[in-house]
């Protein structure tokens, strides 16, 4: 590719591009501002409906917590454990399994292989529906499982009853997630009907789905483990109740960045499929910067309202005071949550799931979780120690992934994307021209 800077005018839209549609290297502040604006529009055009959809999906659980919190402290703790442990476990697994489509559909669409999107979606439906059958016993035996994990018996029994009632939502997610990924990759529908091709190479598809699931689950389950550890502390009802309020608020903000995660994954995979290394890189930089700004604003909002926002969830003064003490940890978590999902979205778009899964495993479960345990139980800092140690794990993971992004050779990633499309059933795209079949 010719790296000579060139301004190509498309219908009066002057911007730094080379002839194949990719950007040239940014040479000035004005060019950087132009690229920033173009990428911002592209990112939020995809992210806005995704954020709205996933926040609405999460809000069903969030609103349940709000209503139940005013019934009593036991009810709030029980429903929070059910949602945060049982439902989040399944949610994370299915979302992760479905995230394989972000890599394949996004790159296939970018490469002009639109016909493959429907095949990928059908394969994912089959895999996720079978996964739901495997996950069902966790819902059915939620109460004894929670007791086995050391949770309060009254809390576990009530949480188990609630978990059984939520089984239908499990199967709805198996259809919902792949369909979302299929649509978001192209911002329209390219459905060509059911096909037996969905069963072709399904085991290889399972392997990519599992890699995606492991990567995302290690992130989502990490925060879930805070609730389990907190359940072993003295005065478990208040401890779990206050933590659940913080996690609920954190979850609402996290859903915004799950939408950003999906949007940046689409941008990265599309641009890789189109063989645009600089557009890929610039879209990543813009997404990370904007996410950090949003995270900082959320932290400020939480710290300003630290003595008041818990009133939405509970009438208990004791719970409100406990939440206020945890607010600064919530604020720090929100900043980290703004960057980390976006980087994971880049990983999904680029097909780096296995690499990120290994980083998550080391930072979260080898470093962060043991540190949280030591601070919480050995150093006797309680829930603040548990949460603080686990935040340290997230900080380490974020720094490592930022370093990986900084060292990434995007031209090489484009070449690997081309190989991936040939492997997964697309035609040879080495001669594909930008705009063909799109």
Automatic annotation (TrEMBL):
Superkingdom of the organism of origin: Eukaryota
Topology versus the membrane: Multi-pass membrane protein
GO biological process: xenobiotic detoxification by transmembrane export across the plasma membrane
Transmembrane annotation, as ranges: 50-72, 78-104, 125-146, 158-178, 204-224, 236-263, 284-306, 326-349, 361-379, 385-406
Similarity-based family: Belongs to the multi antimicrobial extrusion (MATE) (TC 2.A.66.1) family.
Example GO molecular function: antiporter activity
Subcellular localization(s) per the UniProt record: Membrane
GO cellular component: membrane
Keyword Isomerase belongs to the record: no
UniProt xrefs under InterPro entries: MATE_euk, MATE_fam
The keyword Transmembrane is assigned to this record: yes
Keywords annotated in UniProt: Membrane, Transmembrane, Transmembrane helix
Name recorded for this polypeptide: Protein DETOXIFICATION
């Amino acid at each position: 590719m010719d790296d000579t800077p060139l301004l190509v005018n498309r219908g009066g839209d002057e911007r730094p591009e080379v002839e194949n549609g990719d950007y040239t290297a940014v040479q000035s502040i004005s060019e950087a501002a132009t690229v920033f604006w173009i990428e911002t529009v592209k990112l939020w055009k995809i992210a806005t409906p995704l954020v709205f959809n996933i926040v609405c999906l999460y809000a069903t659980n969030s609103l349940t917590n709000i209503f139940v919190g005013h019934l009593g402290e036991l009810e709030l703790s029980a429903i929070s454990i059910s949602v945060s442990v049982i439902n989040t476990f399944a949610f994370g697994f299915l979302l992760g399994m479905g995230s394989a489509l972000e890599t394949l559909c996004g790159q296939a669409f970018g490469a002009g292989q639109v016909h493959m999107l429907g095949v990928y979606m059908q394969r994912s439906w089959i895999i996720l529906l079978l996964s739901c059958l495997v996950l069902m016993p966790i819902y059915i035996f939620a109460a004894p499982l929670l007791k086995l994990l050391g949770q309060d018996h009254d809390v576990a029994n009530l949480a188990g009853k609630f978990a059984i009632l939520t089984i239908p939502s499990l199967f709805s997610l198996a259809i919902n997630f792949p369909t979302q990924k299929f649509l978001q990759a192209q911002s329209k529908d390219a459905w060509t009907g059911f096909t037996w091709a969905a069963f072709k190479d399904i085991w290889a598809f399972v392997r990519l789905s599992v890699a995606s699931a492991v990567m995302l689950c290690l992130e989502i389950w990490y925060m879930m483990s805070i609730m389990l550890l907190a359940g072993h502390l003295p005065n478990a009802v208040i401890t779990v109740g206050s933590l659940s309020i913080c996690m609920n608020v954190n979850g609402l903000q996290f859903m915004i960045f799950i939408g950003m995660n999906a949007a940046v994954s689409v941008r990265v995979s599309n641009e890789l499929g189109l063989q645009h290394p600089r557009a890929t890189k610039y879209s990543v930089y813009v997404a990370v910067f904007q996410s950090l700004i949003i995270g900082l604003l959320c932290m400020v909002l939480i710290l300003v309202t630290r003595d008041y926002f818990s009133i939405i969830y509970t009438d208990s003064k004791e719970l409100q005071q406990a939440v206020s003490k945890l607010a600064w940890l919530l604020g720090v978590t929100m900043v980290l949550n703004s960057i980390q999902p976006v980087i994971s979205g880049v990983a999904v778009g680029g097909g780096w799931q296995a690499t990120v899964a290994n980083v998550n495993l080391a930072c979260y479960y080898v470093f962060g979780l043991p540190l949280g345990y030591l601070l919480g139980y050995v150093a006797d800092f309680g829930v603040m120690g548990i949460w603080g140690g686990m935040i340290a794990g997230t900080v380490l993971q974020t720094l490592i992934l930022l370093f990986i992004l900084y060292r990434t050779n995007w031209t090489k990633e484009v070449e690997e994307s081309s190989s991936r499309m040939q492997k997964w059933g697309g035609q040879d795209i080495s001669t594909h021209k930008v705009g063909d079949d799109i």
